[in-house]
Amino acid sequence: MNAQASLQNHRKLSRRTAVALLAAGMFALGCAPSKATDWPTRPVTMVVPFPPGGFTDMMARMLADSLSRKLGQTFVVDNRPGAGGALAAAQVARAKPDGYTLMFGSAGQLVVVPMLQKVSYDPEKQLQPLGIFGTGPMVLGVRPDLPVGNLQELIAYARANPGKLNVASGGPGTLGNLTAALLAKRAGIDITMVPYKGGGQNIGALLSGEADMYFGNASELVQQKSKVKLLAVSTLKPIPSISDVPPVATLYPGFQTSAWNGLIAPAGLPPDVAARISAVAREAALEPATIERLTTLGIEPSGATAAEHAAVLAEERLTLKEAIEAAGLMTEK
What's the CATH number for 39-136+258-326? Predict the structure, then answer.
């Protein structure tokens, strides 16, 4: 082969090599993991651990609609009730941590249920909080003719009448039941828990005088403030809709429970994707229209960050454990 032919062959090989390298580079780019700024590139499933129609489901759909508009992808609400939310939590805990399976849940699935029964997931190791969307403070209401005008007088009345005050609740392990049990422990009073099926029956029992007390969601009791006496709220600060009702914490420092709802992901979510989901969910929670709608329903818009959400969970694991023990519900698993 002469020098000229050799040079031509070399040039052909160089061109082929260049084309091959370019193709390989393009393929590598196509296969590279998507960045957080690309999320979501396909529909996202938002698992809700309760049936359609409740406040958790309603808030989940508000958030899903907002995120669908913001991000141009479908957010599908998937209701998976059962076992106090443990079925939904287990499904999400087993899911791939890529941002396409999330849970819109509460302390029930991450704190309460795992303390009450054996579950197939580890809430601290397999699930990670991404932020709180809204919070429902608990409010203590008493029947209109109960001869008390504030929390101190209620405690004094209960001490003078041990075991005679009936407390309506949604049943053992519900937040209303646990909040009442925590108050009884802190105050050193003896009260009788009476389970009812749902908030409507609890309110009805209170209005009829069948029940003496009820720790219920603000969204339920604020609407009844002209018919029942509202004595205290379970948050550390008063809530705007009933700003004259003091926190239980003014009498028993540190007393705090609330029914928050927020986003939870499988543990191991890439940090940049987790940060993006947390940020867009926070924006959705703090939209003026969302704030107005939630406030009207007696729910406090939150927009808490992932770090703030984690701090709330850490505190609740202590407070709710105390409440569960006070209610006599802690079991060996």
Answer: 3.40.190.150
